[in-house]
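Researcher: Structure for this, please.
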Amino acid sequence: MSGLTFFSKVPALKKWIPLFLVLLFFSLWFPWNNRDSGSVHSSTQLAMGTLVTISTWGTGDVDEGKKVARIFERIRQVEAIASRQDANSPVYRINHSPQTKHVAPPEALVTIIEKGLEIRQQSQGAFDPGLASLLDLWGFTHGVPEKGALPEQNDLSAWLEKRNQFPEYGIHLNKDPNGTVTLHLDGDVFALDLGAIAKGYALDQAMATMKQSGIQDGLIIGGGDMIIAGSKGGKPWRIGIQHPRDRDKVMAQVEVMGDMALATSGDYERFFMVNGERQHHILDSKTGKPSRSGLISVSIQAKEAMVADALSTAVFVLGMEKGKALIEQLDGVEGMLVQENGERWKSPQFKGQWLDEQKND
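Model: Predicted structure, token format:
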């Protein structure tokens, strides 16, 4: 069965799991005891607030299950570092303890934050790893707010006023001559939320663990993020991208052989409606509100899932023209963008095509 059918059988997780990445091959869901060298073997677990699926092209390895367990464990190690809900995580302690606003973070967290700040600069703030308190105001901390109420305007205005006091976005990562790294957050309005980049980093680490174990052909999916290696028995991995306004429709198909990461962000993942207007979780730090850039779906291909993850958010907030410009200036980055008015764009080297174009070929 397809990934869409699989995810729809977990109603309690619907508000957590973006369904825009759909596997188009039907051999995906093979039980582990059907191990052979001519099929896809898959295992799915809950991690990072979504369903994570690890698929390998049949290696015939009797230890494959143990290897996949180690891959899941690596994902959970990253989650334990980057989660802001886990009271034992460094991010939680940074956000909740004033005395640790100026801290020496773990190496993995440094890597995530450094890349996040780099993409924040490249996107002129469209991607921002410091929006935890804003997401809390909107109720998107644990998925979608049940009552679907707008934040109080006074609270939003206060957040914006405090934030505008720090034009450099209030998050600083510094290294001294001895190599010691410190993280500093300005004021009480800045708090880390790495949900739009840490999941990609976790998939990068998971794929590295997969290859280190000797598995060279595989695919790992976590929500809207995906990382791919090798092939499916000499054939490409085939992935579908969900239509942003029809959850049962696939609008584009991607076929990949070799190493690549893919991430999709859309306004249909986590949202609620107020007076006919869609209030979604991709927030614009300049307005304090859901992005109104005109884009409703952004898919990014890159070498690293961490980069694709963050850039899909950044481009969504930037909008069509500025988003295209950012994609075009970055090496190894390709994009597929869809606007609410139906306009769409695909960069020349994007590995995939619109399905209606395929029918007309």
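Researcher: Any notable elements?
Model: The mean pLDDT is 86. The two ends are 27 Å apart (CA to CA).
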